[in-house]
Amino acid sequence: MATTATFLAPSGFSIQGWSAKRKLGRGRKPWSIKAQQQQQQLEQEAAQSQGSIPQLQQEQEEPLQERAKVQQQPPQPMAKNKNMSREYGGQWLSCCTRHVRIYAAYIDPVTHAFDQTQMDKLTLILDPTNEFAWTPDTCQKVYACFQELVDHYEGAPLSEYTLRLIGSDIEHYIRKLLYDGEIKYNMNSRVLNFSMGKPRVKFNSSQIQNA
Amino acid sequence: MQQDRLSDWLVKHELVHRSLGFDCRGIETLQIKTEDWDSIAVISYVYGYNYLRSQCAYDVAPGGFLASVYHLTRIQYGIDKPEEVCIKVFAPRNNPRIPSVFWIWRSADFQERESYDMLGISYDNHPRLKRILMPESWIGWPLRKDYITPNFYEIQDAH
Which positions make up the signal peptide (chain B) (predicted)? Predict the structure, then answer.
């Protein structure tokens, strides 16, 4: 199953690092979301994402690049496609590989509305193509790894380069889980090409140097 | 002899340069200091070299200098073998700044941006010096000899 988890980036993440290279005058709104509200939203989203997993699975069959229409949905009634067009600077920070997609935006788990104004949040979409068979435990492991990495990278400039470093570290972690046998390939996936190595007999991650 | 003419001319006008001899095609090579490069570029344009054939840069040695190389030639009608010269400017690694020749030869525009992107040599007075090949948010200078590629999954391992 593939799920979405939204994490709050620590306040150390700043756009200041590389913003000198971008043109001035791109309106970037200051973030003014209160911490309590954020915590509430996070809990609600966690409850939603765990409670409606079959529904999400179905929804995630559609290509995620589709932009959702404006809808009024809890927990973020005002969330809609924002800041995606060129007038807002088109700041679309993302890192996409086959199993990990990280966006510097808030993506509503139900409506898939992208809200780019909330750049203090990073959204992780895990394995949208269902190459592996996920259980809630293994999903939580990956989320914990993601949270750890985000804490580790606190203070780095918010740029695609940093998001790609985080995404690559998560991919390496997923590969380590695969080699340790904690996740398996999903034999019913649409594209079964064993992208992280063909299945081997009696193999674990201690047999390779840098897993 | 056609070769050495620029070198003689410069010596005659007492401009500091150092000749690096000839390369395999017989093109004379000169080394110019960074602080003289501004004036010598203008002088060579006035002398007749109106075409910057290419500008490239390379890393001389790990911990050493960064070199910026300019191939100049003169475009004329009816000439079989135009005069050419190759000029190298060496910049120190900790603060590599070289005056830009954009305002003299326009073809240096993208080529100096590429040298900046790959080696980190920053060109003063270049109007839009930013990364041209790597993504804008890249950190590091990829063609330096001491550059280590970060362990991105999609570069190393993805199928």
Answer: none
